[in-house]
Design goal:
The protein has about 600 residues and is of the alpha+beta class. The protein is built from 19 helices and ten strands.
Length: about 600
């Protein structure tokens, strides 16, 4: 069983906004154990030898290939990372789960198929199933004999999942629930064997059920014709007086939302990690083409504007890794001391993961939007070839787009990020309100000299402190203006979320690079240092724009002028030569022919 060498510091979810962390407090890819490295290599070899040669068949919906690949991966233990040992699993740490999602991402269609099976299709039973349900279903899901799926969305309630119309009624003899309704856009629907399906008992008690494909009254509709991920199965489910044994109720009656939302937290961190892997795969395609394609007597990799794009991609991978493995490292620490044999182990595990709901949402939003930029760059680098199916750039471009819709749209996740933090602040679980008050008192008392931080990345540490202040400042202004109505101001909430996302990314990048410097020295960390400096320069500009948007919505007249002056003071920084930084970053990956950290 792989166990991450995670720091022994228990960190509260969302505390990155108000607390300063030391590099040793966080987990990074440089902290992978030998076993983690071996698992990463095993997955990489499996993906290249088994998945990549089958991409054409996968894309043409040969689901027998996808089933066989899942079975082969299961033989290597890759499908069982989250399944308890007593049910045929390996019960590995969440870092390993993230590594698997990251390194298996060589084909968007298969990654989606895989993620739906090992994640949202299996984990509801792992965390909420009865011992009998686990004994019946998990061993078969672990081996790939059965494929799992998850059915939450409906045509009239995509993001508004609790507003579902599918109904469940107890049969007169009390032996079955009779389900009627339709589920939409269900991944793996066309060939799955086991489905976790949500319905309202009596029309109001939102609950979950385990449904087998062979149950009477259950059928699968036609395959959707999709923009991307064409090799994955996406179909509606039709429930027409579907008879589900009462023992297949999953969890408690009326508590389906607990299952749905907590499983999505896990889905979000795995999707974020998968996006990092997808970006790494796309970088390889871009480098290969840019180094061999010539124009005007030079290879594309020698042109500045192409090198800028390669640098952007490498930066996205580095920051994405920092976000993903910091998040799962915190989750592993929260789960470390749980007795897996205790009756409430699943509840403790669920609560441990739920603690980092905001970080999971950040990782999902940041990762999916990063990958969209990456695949756009790769198409552009390929020029006309990027627009045709002959090269993988076209498929990656189409496949990436759905990620911003999966696992809760990015709009919904932005609402979660800000709303979750404000809710915890109001409930006293996170000392955000005292931090906001202290900051408001500080900025309203007039300019302070402020001290520049000395040492490695001192400028960036100062910028991070000011970025956190900007986040708290706009949160204070928005809270005073809208008070209890803030949650209804979606544009303001989203702009605040954008600031929070960049703050967490900056914090994670800085701590990763400082940890690299401490362990390997300044020379070994030159690439990480350049990436961190570049990201900070661009993030500060984004944060100021988002902050101005909030202030302009929440104030006017003299108040707005005063607040804007405060913002200018907090956002002030010297321009950075981002052109030189991107040249340096691109030079490293071009020379290596792959993504490198040092």
């Amino acid at each position: 069983m792989a166990t991450a060498a995670v720091p022994k510091t228990r960190i509260a979810g969302g505390s990155f906004l108000i607390e300063d962390r030391a590099p040793e407090d966080i987990f990074t890819p440089e902290d992978f154990t030998d076993e983690h490295q071996q698992i990463a290599q095993t997955i990489e070899e499996f993906a290249l030898k088994e998945i990549v040669p089958q991409i054409e068949k996968i894309e043409h919906k040969d689901y027998s290939v996808s089933r066989e690949l899942i079975r082969k991966a299961s033989e290597l233990g890759l499908a069982t990372a989250d399944i308890p040992e007593e049910y045929g699993g390996m019960e590995m740490d969440k870092v390993t789960s993230a590594i698997i999602a990251d390194r298996i991402a060589k084909c968007g269609s298969f990654s989606v198929t895989w993620g739906a099976h090992v994640g949202i299709g299996t984990l509801p039973i792992v965390y909420f199933g009865t011992p009998e349900q686990k004994k019946k279903y998990l061993p078969r899901l672990a081996t790939g004999e059965w494929i799992g799926a998850y059915a939450l969305s409906e045509s009239s309630s995509g993001s508004d999942a609790l507003n579902c119309r599918t109904r469940a009624e107890l049969s007169p003899d009390g032996k079955h629930y009779i389900l009627n309704g339709e589920k939409m856009w269900i991944t793996n629907a066309g060939f799955a064997d086991v489905y976790v399906v949500f319905a309202k008992i009596g029309g109001d008690k939102f609950s979950a059920f385990i449904i087998e494909r062979t149950f009477p009254g259950f059928s699968v509709g036609a395959e959707e014709k999709k923009l991307g991920i064409r090799g994955s199965s996406t179909c509606p489910l039709i429930l027409n007086d579907c008879k589900v044994p009462v023992e297949n109720l999953l969890g408690e009656i009326g508590k389906g939302h607990v299952i749905a939302f907590n499983i999505l937290n896990i889905g979000r961190f795995k999707l974020g990690a998968g996006c990092v892997g997808g970006a790494r795969t796309s970088l390889m395609a871009a480098l290969s083409y840019a180094k061999q394609r010539k124009a005007f007597g030079k290879t594309l990799s020698e042109f500045g504007l192409i090198r800028e794009k390669l640098a952007d991609i490498a930066t996205g991978i580095y920051i994405g890794e920092a976000l993903a493995y910091r998040t799962v490292g915190m989750i592993d620490e929260a789960l470390r001391d749980i007795d897996k044999k205790s009756p409430d182990a699943s509840t403790q595990i669920r609560k441990g993961i739920e603690e980092y709901a905001v970080e999971c949402s950040i990782l999902k939003v940041w990762g999916t939007e990063m990958l969209d930029q990456v695949v756009d760059h790769v198409v552009q680098i390929h020029g006309g070839y990027g627009f045709v199916e002959e090269y993988p750039a076209e498929r990656a471009y189409r496949d990436s787009r759905v990620n911003r819709i999966f696992e809760g749209t990015n709009e919904i996740n932005r609402m979660i990020i800000t709303g979750w933090l404000m809710k915890r602040a109001m409930g006293g679980q996170l000392a955000l309100m005292p931090a906001i008050k202290k900051l408001m008192d500080e900025v309203l008392s007039g300019p302070s000299a402020g001290e520049e931080v000395e040492g490695s990345l001192g400028t960036e540490r100062t910028l991070l402190a000011n970025a956190k202040k900007m986040a708290l400042f706009v949160a204070g202004v928005a809270s005073q203006r809208y008070m209890m109505e803030l949650a209804e101001q979606q544009e303001v909430m989203a702009a605040m979320a954008d600031i929070i996302i960049d703050v967490f990314a900056m914090d994670s990048a800085l701590l990763r690079t400082l940890k690299l410097i401490q362990s390997q020295g300044e020379t070994a960390a030159t690439q990480g240092t350049a990436i961190t400096q570049l990201y900070f320069a661009e993030a500060m500009a984004r944060i100021e724009v988002a902050a101005r948007k909030v202030l302009a919505a929440a104030a006017e007249g003299d108040n707005l002028r005063i607040q804007t002056a405060i913002l200018r003071r907090l956002a002030k920084h010297e321009p950075v030569n981002t052109i030189a930084l991107k040249q340096q970053i691109a030079g490293k990956v071009i020379e290596a022919g792959k993504y490198v950290v040092s």
